[in-house]
Amino acid sequence: xxxxxxxxxxxxxxxxxxxxxxxxxxxxxxxxxxxxxxxxxxxxxxxxxxxxxxxxxxxxxxxxxxxxxxxxxxxxxxxxxxxxxxxxxxxxxxxxxxxxxxxxxxxxxxxxxxxxxxxxxxxxxxxxxxxxxxxxxxxxxxxxxxxxxxxxxxxxxxxxxxxxxxxxxxxxxxxxxxxxxxxxxxxxxxxxxxxx
Length: 196
Hints:
Blueprint: E1 2-8, E2 11-24, E3 28-37, E4 43-44, E5 48-57, E6 63-71, E7 87-98, E8 101-112, E9 123-134, E10 139-148, E11 155-164, E12 169-178, E13 186-194
Antiparallel strand pairs: 1-2, 1-13, 2-3, 3-4, 3-5, 5-6, 6-7, 7-8, 8-9, 9-10, 10-11, 11-12, 12-13
């Protein structure tokens, strides 16, 4: 579960995001995300379902995965908590160890649902993320830079940490900065993850 506070030129947007992930058969991970807006318009937003397949495993921390995404249209388009149309996406994630760093390269394509007759809004997305252990494997420092080909194209940078609270729970805090004129100006994220 996570809390995010976004700063846009037009004002602040706050949301809660509930995420569930479940590994199956050792190489398949199913996930679901349900965001809820805490600012006007408030309420449940479009949920996202995902499936990630570990296609190749080079070592314990290195491999190639494929991820499939389905953004549902359960939010209310009339109230502003949803788009009214589903999105579908697919991407690849390459993970490589470089000494104390673990590097993730992520690239994919999103098919965006639009009204009939409207111009296509599909886009490619990509990101570079890196992480390293802290405090004798009790924590991690991570950073990510991401963008996509939507117009106007956003460019975002994020820096954060994860700390283990016991054997099964992590505390996560991160700060993001928008490096382009589109998208958010900054974001603060705080959350917890728990293994069940």
